[in-house]
Here is the input.
Amino acid sequence: MTTQTATRFASAAPAAPVGVAAPRVGIRSRREPWTLAATTVIWLTSLFVVALWVAGAGVQSLVGWGGEMLTTLGRLTGLVSANLLLYQVLLMARVPLFERGFGRDAITRMHRWVGFWSFWLLLAHIALLVAGYSVTADINPVAQAWDFVWNYPGMLLATAGTALLVLVVVTSIRRARRRLRYESWHLLHLYGYLGVGLAIPHMLWTGADFLAHPLATVYWWMMWGATAAAVVVFRVGLPLWRSWRHDIRVHSVSRDGRSGVAVRMRGKRLQKLGARGGQFFVWRFVDGPGWTRGHPFSLAADPSGGDLVIAATMVGDGTRRLASLRPGTRVLIEGPYGHMTGEARQGRKLLLLGAGAGVSPLVSILESEPYGPGEATLITRDHSGEDALRTDAIAELVRRRGLRHFQLVGQRRTDGSTWLPAVHADWRGADLIRHLAADLDDYDVFVCGPLPWMSALRADLAAAGVRPARIHTEAFAI
Ligand SMILES: Cc1cc2nc3c(=O)[nH]c(=O)nc-3n(C[C@H](O)[C@H](O)[C@H](O)COP(=O)(O)OP(=O)(O)OC[C@H]3O[C@@H](n4cnc5c(N)ncnc54)[C@H](O)[C@@H]3O)c2cc1C
Here is the structure.
């Protein structure tokens, strides 16, 4: 018996399992070449942009205080901001190079970071150019700003674009975002694309660094063109084509625990999707008004068998609606996405920790990955046992594959290791991890759940000595 509702952690020997798979020792992650390629592309293009500024006598213009220096700094901040804005769009365009190289979690973090810097550099660009031109022409900065907006080609559009970007940034500030429904926030956020689009003409019509050298003009046209094409192809074209090609339909819907629902889907040649355990799709169920709102759900079972299964905790309209889906309902997909798959493995053993619905992708990883009996340990965290998802699938893994399963239930601890329930107040989280996975160097750790739970757990994993490269995560948040 290896599922334990853990009030004490006995070291459990697995029951005699079947289907022992080949162990994997000391392998390099298959993700590394993608990460290297994606990082190289970003660095090369960023350096190229700075090189264009240097070639345009940017450095020389920095000597001495005055209008020219302010203007050249304005040009530099504008160039870097434009390049970052371009990456803002590209990173969210689901381009396979970035998806595989960085993973969704890292991309979401980068999106926030790049968004912050591109916005502030954009404001600096505006302020520096207004200051630089007004010093050179010896006129009032307000009059100079007015002159820019009304008399320079493309500037009226750029002003409208800036206003839209300000709207996107303001509504993304945490406090403002909490007040908005996810759907409203998302809709406003999409205005960012329009904002970026409106800013382009002024760069191409008036930007000295865009026009100075044919190489610069080619670079910017190419980058903007590639970005627009990436959005059209990867966010619209490919999902529509995949949905049509695979003709996915709801096969069955069942309850999963007290407050969960599982949906099984079938379609044509689903193996050709290339989905892996641990990945997620954005799903749209064409079941009536409101179907256009997509929701991300992870695969809750190994997809190589041909069926696609998701399991969700019912928290709002979108998830409750899953429970009333009828067999035969058409399903549109975007994906597969996500980085938290067996491809990331470097060690032989697996430690998987999931909270709430976070257990779903972990189960699909456990079903699809090779490991021997006792080499995989799953820790699930729920407020109560009745809320737990995927319990049947986990029991099957325990019985057939020799999975060790520990179930942590109850109220959250309020001090120290808050990822543990209060009944384990006597444990330091890091000690518990070392106790359950004594030979930690052999392990890859997969973590999925709400952000605060994950960050408390990450701190304890680090304290236990797990190297960051061995921790693979997917947060159920964007
Ligand atoms: C990569 C990823 C994988 C996920 N996998 C699963 C899973 O396997 N099982 C599961 O139960 N849940 C999963 N979720 C969470 C799930 O997408 C949300 O709980 C669901 O969209 C909530 O919709 P709602 O209308 O029921 O609730 P709402 O009341 O509208 O929202 C509840 C919460 O979910 C967030 N949310 C709402 N819509 C979305 C959306 N389209 N995208 C992202 N967040 C949203 C809101 O910000 C809010 O915090 C996943 C989320 C992400 C980002």
In short: The longest strand covers residues 248-255.
